[in-house]
Amino acid sequence: MFEYEFMVNAFAAAGIVAVLAGIVGYFLVLRGQTFAGHALSHVGFTGATGAALLGVSPIWGMVGFTLAAGIGMGALGERLAGRDVAIGVILSVALGCGLLFLHFYTSYATQVTALLFGNVLGVSHATLVVLVAIGAVSLVALAAIARPLLFASLQPELAEAKGVSLRLVSILFLSICALAVAACTQIVGVLLVFTLLVGPAAAAQNLATRLTTGVWLAAAFALSEAWLGITLAYYTDWPTSFWITALSALVYGASLVGRRHSA
């Protein structure tokens, strides 16, 4: 299996993205912002199709659009109801623009399928380099804001009273989420981004009692699901995204059973 370069690239890309998604996703679930992650993936689709229409690499359009959307969502502040309404509007506009771009560029159908459902076996060396850069920047940035992020997530009123800017923390975190979403779509696609970003993190929260344990468990779950999914896809010739999604659902279901038994 590893005698093929595309398989080596696939495992490397999936490893980078899975670890990033597991760690970032844990904080996303902890903060109750999974809907924001869903919206970012659709905004990324619009950016990718728009970039292709202009003759630019889709991944750069995806990164640019998700990053801009993440900053915009973070700037909305911490009021959940108003933020969710605004995110819903952003999501609708993004999908509409994506459809418009596809209307003008119908020859993009094959790449659109890869964007929607992922194509980890088609990751090039150039894309792998971009994923390494995204992963490194995202994890370093997350480590830098980890303390205020955790404080603002668990005790927002007290954090604000202590001088922590909830708006700034939200902007920085959702910007990191945007980069993670852009990376995830290269593996599982826009429609299945929750598979790596939310599934492993939710399973980890069901099982872990300590934050550090939960973060590393989420990363381990995501990594295992990604690598095992690629392996099963190689031997069965079924879509990689299907296997990763199925494994994610299986792990989450097992975590629910484990939580009930430990209660």
Q: Can you characterise this structure?
A:
Helix content is 81%, strand content 0%. Helix 2 packs antiparallel against helix 3 and helix 2 (34-53) crosses helix 9 (166-184). The model has no long low-confidence stretch (mean pLDDT 86). By secondary structure, it is mainly alpha-helical. The protein has helices at 5-30, 34-53, 58-74, 80-104, 109-117, 125-144, 146-154, 156-161, 166-184, 194-197, 199-207, 211-236, 240-262. It has a single domain (5-191), classed as Orthogonal Bundle (ABC transporter involved in vitamin B12 uptake, BtuC), CATH 1.10.3470.
Overall outline: globular
Query: SS-based structural class?
Result: mainly alpha
CATH homology-level superfamily: ABC transporter involved in vitamin B12 uptake, BtuC
Oligomer: single chain
Rg from Cα = 18 Å
Total number of distinct structural domains:
1
Major sheet details: none
User: The CATH topology is what?
Assistant: ABC transporter involved in vitamin B12 uptake, BtuC
* Element pattern in H and E: HHHHHHHHHHHHH
Membrane topology: Multi-pass membrane protein
Family: Belongs to the ABC-3 integral membrane protein family.
Protein name: ABC 3 transport family protein
Keywords: Membrane, Transmembrane, Transmembrane helix, Transport
Key features?
263 residues; ABC transporter involved in vitamin B12 uptake, BtuC
Topology:
Layout: H1 5-30, H2 34-53, H3 58-74, H4 80-104, H5 109-117, H6 125-144, H7 146-154, H8 156-161, H9 166-184, H10 194-197, H11 199-207, H12 211-236, H13 240-262
Helix pairs in contact: 1-6, 1-9, 1-11, 1-12, 2-3, 2-4, 2-9, 3-9, 6-9, 11-12, 11-13, 12-13
